[in-house]
Amino acid sequence: MLDLSAAQPDVLVLVGTQTGNSEVVADAIAERLGDLGFAVHLLDMAEAWPEALAEHPQAIAVTCTWSDGTFPDNAVDFAEALDAVRPDLSGVRFGVCGLGDRDYDPYYQTAAVRLVDLFRECGATEAAPLHDIDGGPTPSDVAGAVGWAVECARAFADA
Q1: Rounded Cα gap, residues 73 and 3, in angstroms
Q2: Predicted TM-score (pTM) of this structure
C-alpha cells in the first residue's frame, strides 16, 4: 500500500494550455492525487502568481510548448513574472509535465524545460524529472502522466 502520510496535505496543480490538452492531463493528475488523499488546488496559470508558490510546498505544473518554443498564452504572464520576481521557493518540491510535438524540433519541450529551470533558479527541489508527452495526449500518455504524478507524491512524502 502506498503510504503518503509524511507528505503535506496540499498539492498545487498549475495548468498552462493553449488547446486544452494540458488541462486533460492536469485533470487526470488532480483526480488521482485526490484519490490518494491530497487536497488538490487546480489552477490555470493565467490566475496564478509566483508568490503563491511559496504557500504550496508541493506543486505540479502541466504545460505545453507552443508555436516557436513559447509558453501557451495563459502561462506567458506567469512565467515572465516568475522570472522577474524570483520568489524564494526553497521549501517547495515540484514536478513538471510537458506536452509538445517532436515535429517542431528544436522547440520540443522548451517551455517545460524553461519552467523546470525557473523553479530550480528560485530554489525549489525537483520531486521527479520532467515527464514529457509527445503529441497527443493519448489515453496511454495520460496514464503515464498519472503514474509519474504518483512518483512525485512519493517524493513529497520522502521530503
Answers
A1: 38
A2: 0.95
